[in-house]
Amino acid sequence: MSIKRNFIAAAAVAALCAGGAGAAELAGRAVAVQQDALQAEGAVGFPIDAGAEIYRNARVYTKQYGTAEIRLEDGTALTVAPNASLVIDDYVFAGAGRPGSLALSLSRGAMRMVSGRMPKEGVAVSTAIGTIGVRGTDFWIEAPSDDLIRLWVLEGVVTAAPTNSATVFEFAAPAFATCSAGGCEPGEAPPVPVTNPLGGEAGGAGDPGIDAEESHESPSDF
């Protein structure tokens, strides 16, 4: 890792810790990264390298060529697709078989979740149209707009509770559904969202020609 990247990584940790102890609670680590994946708390985002710590309440977001795989402390795997933005709002894990909670907010783009040891009743994903409940084990969520989400359930069961509907919809794998605030409609599944190849630090060999080491910018710009 270059001296410059060491400096940026140190600055990122300092920025995340500046808001107090609660702002720097560890949730997991990035295990694989494609360039243009960043983490921010507040206005400034810093590139994520493979092995970087991922914090509760920090925003993880990607640009056009960005993809990140995050492994949480309980083993839950999150894949953040290009042009996506999510926040780990709550993360409490005290060990398998003990109470815990994982709450995510997906504001744009797509993410994949593969469940770990977190109790499934304690896992939820918030979106603009409602809340997604997780009964395991492997699924995709895509938020292409503020009034629509798409769900691919590859293993297990996922529930959807749209804001303006009294019905909680349940989808058992294999399943696909499109949901708005008013309800969900199952359908024939299109291909799952595309991700860039993973396998190294941001800006690694073979990446498109954007230097992620220079990317410490506001997440609101993307």
CATH topology: Jelly Rolls
Main sheet overview: 15 strands, mixed
CATH class: Mainly Beta
Distance between the termini: 26 Å
Whole-number count of domains: 1
- SSE pattern: HEEEEEEEEEEEEEEE
* Helix residue percentage: under 10%
Structural class, from secondary structure content?
mainly beta
From the spread of the alpha carbons, the general shape counts as globular
Q: If helices are DSSP runs of H or I spanning 4 or more residues, what is the number of helices? A: 1
Mean pLDDT: 83
Share in β-strands = over 45%
Report the C-alpha radius of gyration, rounded. 17 Å
Any overview of this molecule?
This protein has one domain (3-194): Jelly Rolls (Sandwich). The chain is globular and about 40 Å long. 7% of the residues lie in helices and 48% in strands. It has a 15-stranded mixed β-sheet that branches. Mean pLDDT is 83; it is low at 1-15, 17-23 and 201-215. It has one helix spanning 3-17; strands spanning 26-34, 37-40, 45-47, 53-55, 59-62, 67-72, 77-80, 85-93, 100-114, 123-127, 130-145, 148-162, 169-172, 175-180, 183-186. It is mainly β.
